[in-house]
Specification:
The chain has strands at about 5, 10-15, 20-25, 35-40, 45-50, 60, 70-75, 80-85, 90-100, 110, 115-120. It is mainly beta and about 120 residues long. The strands form two sheets. Strands 2, 4, 5, 6, 9, 10 and 11 form a seven-stranded mixed β-sheet that branches.
Length: about 120
């Protein structure tokens, strides 16, 4: 069982930056791939990024590639999402998730956080 708690969301002007954190419980954190997803009002949940459990390899959606960076600190059992050059279309609730393997598919993740709101003003 893994419990995930996101933090770091808020209101930011377009072009600004935010860093989201996802603190996990449990001693098996390093055995999970970690992903970030987002959901805007009226839209489906969208893949943002994931980081693998084995070699910390990363993968990003085209919409955030070059602007967002996912990383993990196994000692702190935390995964981060550094978001730079934010755009109004990045506005959404951001969720972190833990799964056996990294994937763009949300069904591959067994555990989810409650989400944190990110609002980017134009």
């Amino acid at each position: 069982q893994v419990q995930l708690v996101e933090s770091g969301g808020g209101l930011v002007q377009a072009g600004g930056s935010l860093r989201l954190s996802c603190a996990a419980s449990g001693r098996t954190f390093s055995s999970y791939a970690m992903g970030w997803f987002r959901q805007a009002p009226g839209k489906e949940r969208e893949f943002v990024a994931y980081i693998s459990r084995r070699d910390d390899s990363t993968y990003y959606s085209d919409s955030v590639k070059g602007r967002f960076t996912i990383s993990r600190d196994n000692a702190k059992i935390t995964v981060y999402l550094q978001m730079n050059s934010l755009k109004p279309e990045d506005t959404a609730v951001y969720y972190c998730a833990a799964g056996g393997m990294g994937s763009w598919n949300p069904s591959m993740y067994a555990y989810w956080g409650q989400g944190t709101q990110v609002t980017v003003a134009s």
